[in-house]
Write a structure and sequence with these properties.
The chain is mainly alpha-helical. It contains four helices and two strands. A two-stranded antiparallel sheet has the order 1-2. It is globular.
């Protein structure tokens, strides 16, 4: 079932959201200070391409630097990417078939707002990061 949902997701909004993350990552990688943020954008972009079957979990070794980085991320790119998830989630929830995809978009909003300190793991191994 997750394969079918991933294919429908890819066609309706996954490709566009992934391109948004890749663009944000490329812009953030232009400076040396922005490279960690760009890497996070690329990681979340791949997650936004195929979200079904994966989950974002907190990394236990993430500390204060990831918190400071998340504040910077929120200002630089997180706000705009989260807005994209809100708009596509609302648009997908208009149809009955798109409701699970809209909920997946809403599930990605916290990750798009604060991606540092999180790890993407398969749902069959949610405690693999620990």
């Amino acid at each position: 079932m997750k394969t079918v949902l991933n294919v429908i997701w890819l066609v309706l909004c996954g490709l566009w959201m992934c391109l948004g993350y890749l663009l944000a990552g490329a812009l953030l990688c232009l400076t040396i200070i922005g490279i960690p943020f760009g890497v996070a954008a690329f990681r979340i972009g791949i997650y936004a391409l195929w979200p079904f079957g994966y989950a974002a979990v907190e990394r236990p070794d993430a500390g204060a630097p990831s918190c400071v980085g998340n504040v910077l991320w929120l200002v630089l790119a997180g706000w705009w990417l989260a807005l994209g998830h809100v708009l596509t989630g609302i648009a997908l929830c208009v149809t009955i078939i798109g409701i699970p995809l809209g909920f997946a978009n809403f599930k990605l909003i916290p990750v798009s707002l604060m991606p540092l300190g999180k790890e993407i793991v398969p749902t069959d191994r949610p405690f693999a990061a620990r």
